[in-house]
Design goal:
By secondary structure, the chain is α/β, with parallel strands linked by helices. The chain has five domains: 81 residues, PriA, 3(prime) DNA-binding domain (GIY-YIG endonuclease, 3-Layer(aba) Sandwich), CATH 3.40.1440.60; 63 residues, Arc Repressor Mutant, subunit A; 179 residues, P-loop containing nucleotide triphosphate hydrolases (Rossmann fold, 3-Layer(aba) Sandwich), CATH 3.40.50.300; 176 residues, 3-Layer(aba) Sandwich (Rossmann fold); 87 residues, Ribosomal protein S10 (Alpha-Beta Plaits), CATH 3.30.70.600. The chain contains 20 helices and 31 strands. Strands 10-11-9-12-15-8-16 form a seven-stranded parallel sheet, with helices on both faces. A six-stranded parallel sheet has the order 17-27-26-18-25-24, with helices on both faces. Strands 2-1-4-3-5 form a five-stranded antiparallel sheet. It is globular and about 80 Å long. Adenosine-5'-diphosphate (ADP) binds next to α7. The site of adenosine-5'-diphosphate has 15 residues, from α7.
């Protein structure tokens, strides 16, 4: 619907933000007769193109009105909610990103801004066609129930070709009526939730009251795994629906999104809208349009759902709030938990953070009185928390090609003999993390990144997990030429499954790892097989660690608990604790008691001690004091900067230049330039700087003052990461 309108001299001027990496909105003339308010989606010319943008406010007036181009058309969609516009500005400022790039996150389906597309559905008219065939009779039999169906549905249900249906339409036996192409979202049914325990009810009451208050608050729902946090926040979702508001639930993994989706459907009798990066264009259009028009009331989604235009948003839940995958690392670098709290504050609605292992950031906000906390101490019903024990691998003295201790092997055998299920956790994809020549010691490295090649035996390739480079495993060592001397070192999940096959040849096993599972349907199938008891032993990476609820699962084995502690990441201990606690929490979720065996070379490490003794809070307060002493987050702020380019010398020099031109501020410490831990990535050399400042320091204005005027050569990129979580 593009109206061609001509600018009149008395036209007024608006500023329009475009979903492109541009630093500010541009002014455009509004032709007379065109009504455009703030938030309207409009089409405007940009060079030779026509781009859809959003009216951000009155014209700024920095360009002579004579030179301005006119708005060309108005999209027939509701305006962007004002709080979402404020959110775009806020996120852009906080993350030091162009506002247009943030706007692009809110416009993930342009088709959804068009009028809904219609399609024809057919019903039987009762008229009998002159010529009747068996195929025609089958179609009319299907249509006899009076329901309207698309031609495709009629063909499928009657088992006929499209020509048969077409013939019946022409003969007047079927009559069409217009329906929206995208299926609508039926309203959820209320009052179907389970009877809550006293503790659950008390927590739910508080959350529901916050929803009814329609004011901003952040509440941490801190409950052990299996305590019913999901049931409790679904009560709050129901309260939001009853208040006529929309609700948004964010989860860290698509697999979890699907599980909640089913749970939601069982409870509310209808399907919520689901949003994640794997959706097709068509699904995206359907969700986006329904959400934007207020027709879909609940969205369950991954972090990017935070940018959906939900005009009546009244509750945001962030489940597994501690999870690192809420941090978006590419493009606009943001943390969905932190930005979620901002969205709640701008939209005046409550935010609920749920976790059994809250992040230090969140706990510090609780301590400072900024966030509230509700606690669920026990698992629901008869379920108890599992017994957690360490296996000291120093004592085990396993041969180099074995990774499962005798104790864990015996426990696996016992569990399976009792008809129960087990899980082996190893956060390493592929067969072996390192391939080494036994003759000369050569290590197989990625040619374009500083990283080892990981053997994937199912694919029969060596793969770089950083750049995606892959090659066939060579027969001869590329360094010394020795034949068949390349040897797999260390375990990945594929190798573990090989070991299990030798230890427990009868066991039915499956591997859950992101390179063997490519789409949500695969995940669903695997979860269903696990629930149906068709799998005895699930071997998996972190993909399997979170959220899943398998009633028959009573044993969890952690193969290498020390893995996450290597590498010197600021949050290594905290993250390892969270991850292992989560995976341990999969055991014994119903009547049968669960147990967890953690294989480690450091049973005395604080993380292992905290896991086995259940001393979460003591461990975290120790972590907190260590960080406080070093002024590290959450007691100080960091900004990571990575310069990358094809020539090392150029990137290093630019790094030094950047440091030299950094504004002086006593509170700020600048570290680097230094080669990044992944010093080469996809052929680009990487140099990093790290900026450290006190929490209250106005870091954004400092960044603007420092970096706005920096001009980089075309092949060099600067990535700015405010509050970094990865230091690679
Ligand atoms: P969490 O989110 O804390 O891990 P869930 O909400 O998934 O816990 O609850 C764990 C299991 O216990 C789920 O199967 C859930 O349906 C069940 N459950 C929790 N609370 C209740 C309740 N009040 N009545 C019936 N079942 C419940």
């Amino acid at each position: 619907m593009t109206e061609t309108l001509f600018p009149e001299p008395e036209s007024h001027v608006v500023s329009v933000l475009l979903p492109l990496p541009l630093p500010s909105p541009y002014d455009y003339l509004v032709p007379e007769g065109l009504e455009v308010g703030v938030g309207a989606y409009v089409e405007v010319p940009l060079g030779p193109r026509v781009v859809t943008g959003v009216v951000w406010g009155p014209g700024v007036g920095d360009v002579d009105a004579q030179k301005l181009k006119p708005v060309e058309g108005l999209k027939p969609a509701p305006p962007m909610p004002k709080d979402l516009m404020d959110f775009v500005d806020w996120v852009a400022d906080y993350t030091y990103t162009q506002p247009g790039s943030v706007l692009a996150l809110t416009m993930r389906s342009r088709a959804a801004l068009e009028p809904p597309q219609m399609t024809l559905y057919y019903r039987a008219t009762g008229e009998v066609p002159e010529r009747m065939t068996a195929a025609r009779a089958r179609v009319l039999e299907v249509a006899a129930d009076g329901m309207a169906r698309s031609p495709r549905m009629l063909c499928e249900e009657a088992g006929v070709s499209s020509g048969v249906v077409k013939g019946l339409i022409e003969a007047g036996a079927l009559q069409g009526e217009e329906r929206p192409l995208d299926a609508p979202y039926p309203p959820p049914q209320m009052g179907q939730g389970p009877k809550l325990s006293k503790a659950q009810q008390a927590a739910a009451d508080v959350l529901c009251e916050r929803v009814r208050d329609k004011a901003f608050s952040v509440t941490l729902l801190d409950g052990v795994t299996g305590s019913g946090k999901t049931e409790v926040y679904l009560e709050a979702v129901e309260a939001a629906l009853q208040e006529g508001r929309q609700a948004l639930v964010l989860l860290p993994e698509i697999a979890l999104t699907l599980q909640l989706f089913e749970r939601f459907e069982r409870r509310f009798g209808s399907r919520p809208a689901v949003w994640h990066s794997g959706l097709s264009q068509k699904e995206r259009r359907r969700v986006f349009a329904a959400v934007h028009r207020g027709e879909a009331r609940v969205v369950i989604g991954a972090r990017s759902a935070l940018f959906l235009p939900m005009p009546e948003l009244g509750l945001l839940v962030i489940d597994e709030e501690h999870d690192a995958s809420f941090k978006q690392e590419d493009g606009v670098v943001y943390h969905a938990r932190d930005m979620g709290a901002v969205r709640g504050s701008l939209g005046s609605f409550p935010v609920v953070l749920a976790s059994a292992t809250p992040s230090l950031e969140t706990l510090m906000n609780v301590e400072a009185g900024k966030y509230d906390r509700l606690v669920l101490k026990a698992r629901h019903g008869a379920a108890r928390l599992p017994e957690i024990d360490c296996v000291d691998m120093r004592q085990e003295k396993l041969p180099a090609d074995r990774f499962i201790s005798n104790r864990l092997a015996a426990a696996l055998e016992e569990t399976l003999a009792q008809g129960e299920q087990a899980m082996l956790f190893l956060n390493r994809r592929g067969y072996a993390p390192l391939t080494l020549c036994r003759t000369c010691g050569h290590r197989m490295m990625s040619p374009d990144s500083s990283s080892w090649l990981v053997e994937h035996r199912f694919l029969n390739r060596l793969v770089c997990h950083h750049s995606g480079f892959s090659m066939e495993k060579p027969k001869f060592c590329p360094n010394c030429g020795a034949e068949d001397s390349l040897h797999a070192c260390g375990p990945g999940v594929e190798r573990l499954s090989e070991e299990v096959a030798t230890l427990l040849p009868e066991a039915r096993t499956a591997i859950m790892s992101s390179d063997l599972i490519h789409n949500p349907e695969d995940v669903e199938a695997l979860i269903a097989a696990m629930e149906a008891g068709e799998i005895d032993l699930l071997i998996g990476t972190q993909m399997m660690a979170k959220g899943h609820h398998f009633p028959q699962l009573t044993l969890v084995g952690v193969v290498d608990a020390d893995l996450g502690l290597k590498g010197g990441d600021l949050r290594a201990a905290e993250r390892t604790y969270q991850m292992l606690h989560q995976v341990a929490g999969r055991a014994g979720r119903e009547e049968k008691p669960g147990r967890v065996l953690i294989q480690t070379y450091m049973p005395e490490h604080d993380v292992m001690q905290a896991l086995t003794s259940g001393g979460r809070d003591a461990f975290l307060s120790q972590e907190a004091s260590a960080r406080e002493m070093l002024n590290m987050p959450p007691f100080g702020r960091l900004v990571g900067l990575v310069l990358s380019g094809p020539e090392l010398g150029v990137v290093e020099k630019l790094g030094r230049d950047l440091v030299a031109r950094a504004p002086r501020a006593d509170a700020v410490r600048l570290m680097g330039p230094a080669p990044a831990p992944i010093a080469l990535l996809r052929g680009r050399h990487r140099v990093r700087l790290l900026l450290k400042a006190p929490t209250r320091f106005p870091i954004q204005s400092y960044l603007h003052q420092w970096l706005d005027a920096v001009k980089l050569p075309p092949q060099v990129r600067l990535r700015v990461d405010v509050d970094p979580y990865r230091f690679l």
